[in-house]
Amino acid sequence: MGNLPTALSEDFSVLLDSGDMDGAASLIRSAAEVGSAEAIFLSSTFSRPQESVDEFELRSLAEVELSAAKGYAPAQYRLGCYLQFGDFVNVDAVEAAQYFKLAANAGYPPAMYEYGLALFHGIGVDSKHDEAISWIMLSAEKGDETAAEFLKKMRGS
Known about the structure:
mainly alpha; Serine Threonine Protein Phosphatase 5, Tetratricopeptide repeat
């Protein structure tokens, strides 16, 4: 289905959750050096020793953009969120919807939900209610709890 998280992301999360920052960094270092979109994206999630907040934010954004350009769906989704809310970049609803669509087409459930919402509300794209509901339903079927809650509220239950 596309460029989605693998065991690398799961192993990385386990190390971070246990507080092993050095182990997490070591796990992704070689993969990032050879251009793994997933590893580059994971690298964007934490700061380096002696890195200022401004330096971290610039590097993180550059890594998310690079990973998204390589087709990694979670990076495309995150870049869509940045564009939707104006985090690190100017708000651009059209470009946000394009990134959500890319990640949704790759099979990333959170992006399916956000792209469905964009279609539902006509934000950055033409409003297409039936297509919107299809994307949101698919997201819920793939385990996105926010999408499931949205559908539940729509049904009034």
